[in-house]
């Protein structure tokens, strides 16, 4: 089975659950239902890994994480998740980061963001003319960064080529939506049941 | 303000979201609503940190985390969270770990578990004669480990001196319940709104 190479971008100040929610969903999805199938990767349709510019990052609340890969040594990426957090603010002026994201965005099968990760995508020019959403506290900022974006204020997940999601826990819904698009409703619902998350 | 010292136990094979959900809730709770209050710890009622026996642990999916403290050097603990995951199974025979948990459990204000963390508490004798829950895939195992436990099969959070929760994402509900008990409904609901998690 071809496993989709799923990269989650990490950086200092990434919101912990923005990253951990989608990581949990993609890494625990199995095409075979039940508890036992989660003991191996045999029916895992995603291979999930983290990528960061630095060898160590600190998420909100002080959690220190060792990313799996660096910017220049990671495997090919099919699905890229850009999470949010207060740590996105310096990224808005960080040309190395914006260039890296633009470059990968041009080659991935699917680009996604959680929470204020959408601000970074907008600043990189990747949401031009598209519908998108972000954390409720950053909706106006998203519109200010790129006035061509149609900001969706009421939806948890917005799909307009790029998939953006609302704040923090909405990243779990986003990831489950992607599982459903790729592998069907039954697999997505069973994964939600495994992690005891109620989909909306 | 006295901040409750909130420790989350980490170990190899801890389920990522079991740990990250409660960490997110407790570390993002603020007594002052809104986005700006989350930029500092000024109105944060919890100080959250991780404790592990080893200097580095690997969660499910391969996420490598550097715990804040070790077993012999951590601050006093008011609130202890024992998460679950397949990594709990070796802990059931790990007397060093069981002794550490028993010792801390005797001194904390509140002992809690997420998911199969309840198996470890049961094995440590800390759920004797109590109502408790765990991940749906481990309900029978919980009953087998300690037949004096009344296993609650339908509830996401069970409070019988010890607070146990169902699988994975139920740890987010559990943490929000604790926020509500300690700081009131408005603070818990506002924290849920901040992380865009719908309470049940």
Beta strand count of chain A = 11
Helix content of chain A: 25-40%
Give the overall shape of chain A, derived from the CA principal axes: globular
The name of the CATH architecture of chain A is 3-Layer(aba) Sandwich
Tell me the CATH superfamily of chain A.
Answer: Class I glutamine amidotransferase (GATase) domain
- Biggest interface between protein chains, with counts per chain? A-B, 42 and 43 residues
- CATH C-level name of chain A: Alpha Beta
Distance between the termini of chain A: 30 Å
The third-level CATH topology of chain A is Rossmann fold
What is the spatial order of strands in the main beta sheet of chain A? 5-2-1-6-7-11-10
Order of helices and strands of chain A: EHEEEEEHHEHEHEEEHH
**Biggest β-sheet description of chain A:** 7 strands, mixed
Q: How would you state the average pLDDT of chain A, rounded? A: 97
Oligomer: homodimer
Query: How many separate domains of chain A?
Result: 1
Total of DSSP H or I helical runs spanning 4+ residues of chain A: 7
| Low-pLDDT sequence parts of chain A | none
Walk me through the structure.
Two copies of one chain form a homodimer. Chain A is of the alpha/beta class and 200 residues long. Chain A has a single domain, classed as Class I glutamine amidotransferase (GATase) domain (Rossmann fold, 3-Layer(aba) Sandwich). Chain A has seven helices and eleven strands. The longest helix of chain A has 14 residues. The model of chain A has no long low-confidence stretch (mean pLDDT 97). Chains A and B meet through helix 1, strand 2 and strand 4 of A and helix 1, strand 2 and strand 4 of B.
